[in-house]
Write a structure and sequence with these properties.
With 98 residues, the chain is mostly helical. The protein has four helices and no strands. The chain is flat, with a radius of gyration of 15 Å. The two termini are 25 Å apart. This is Putative exported protein.
């Protein structure tokens, strides 16, 4: 958004290693568009889920807590399933998967 300083999100530190993944997700969600509201929503949600996967992989790599790493692994599995369902919706509606 205009006027917002996102530079702090880009900085990685031990407490927040997610900045680059968040910015990448945001950029991809903002550019995801379709021919109508349903297709646009579907494409934005795919990017949102991909962002969740990217952040979950960072948590799997960096989190010291085993429960957090396990939840992150489960999140990856769930988000991949959700992406597959969204891709199927695109195909069923004659749209190009992404």
């Amino acid at each position: 958004m205009q006027g917002m300083d996102h530079s702090k999100m880009m900085m990685n530190d031990p407490g927040n290693p997610y900045g680059p993944a968040e910015m990448d997700m945001h950029r991809k969600m903002m550019s995801a568009k379709g021919s109508d509201a349903a297709e646009t929503w579907t494409r934005k949600m795919i990017e949102h889920h991909r962002g969740a996967i990217a952040m979950s992989r960072i948590a799997q790599r960096d989190a010291k807590d085993a429960d957090t790493r396990q939840m992150a692994a489960m999140t990856v599995t769930k988000q991949e399933k959700d992406i597959a369902e969204l891709q199927d919706w695109l195909r069923k509606h004659g749209k190009r998967p992404q």
